[in-house]
Amino acid sequence: MHSLSDAALTFLASLLGCLAVGRPAIRVLAHAQCVAPVRYEDCAPLMAYQRTKPAPPTMGGLFVLAVAILVAAAAGGLGHRDGWLVLLAVAGVGAMGLLDDYLKFKGPNAVGIRSLPKLLVTLAVGAMVGLASSGSSSGGTVEVPWMERTVRLGWAWVPFVMLVLSSSAHAVNLTDGLDGLAAGCLATVLVVLGLWALGGTAEGRVLVPWCASLAGACVGFLWFNGFPASVVLGDVGALGLGAALGTISLLTQTALWLLVLGGVFVAEASSVILQVASYRWRNKRRIFRVAPLHHHFQVGGMSEPKVILRFWIAGLLLAMAAVAFRR
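Below the sequence we write its predicted structure tokens.
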């Protein structure tokens, strides 16, 4: 049985773990020249801005995920099948992100893995999680917001898991474009999911160590990732954490609440979808100055720290709204 005090200790242990290993890990990444590649070649304002900032090492998500997994395991996070499913999602999607990061700074033209293979891998991991959880008491069911009822999805469960896990992973990855933006928003969402799991069923409470550990690791990472960042998550961190977020929401039956609770991630992903659709189907006309959404405000003249802070506030307000609306 996991209590609030246990969750707080797990959160603190993960936070302190990231603080302890962060500086040595950054030195190793910098020595290995794991530097984030230059982006935004098609956007002159962002390109010029990026060149004014020092290029931090990428793949910081390696030590974030490593600390979070070790602390969660020590706190009993692998004592139930659902905990192993979270580990499967983190390891499977995170491994693809690690390969993508590696190819970006080692491969020709810093291309990395193309979008379609990335999508297929996240869908495949989602299928494995869906199949493994379909027979459990925590799988196959989703809570419908504002209707105070749950619905058994039956055969639609596996496709639903594939959609949620893949969408969550890629939405977090798209949000990870400014220093500390994704990590700060993730910490807020994971804390709320942990509180919901703590007050839910016995099956849901087994995921409390994962929520606390992942949230603590994100907060600890902000020590190094806050503006101006000394290290960035990279795809290994953003995709892995996003996959964990989606999996935990699925196993706690709160996946549909992510539309409110994770509204920042939803807005970021939606802005990219709308921008691409508008460009293709409206004779190359754009809706936003640049997508994802955070760059729209940045190009509009808002400073990076102010964009980050306002998105954090928006994420906190959405989290409070989700807590207030969910009965």
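DSSP finds 14 helices and two strands in the chain.
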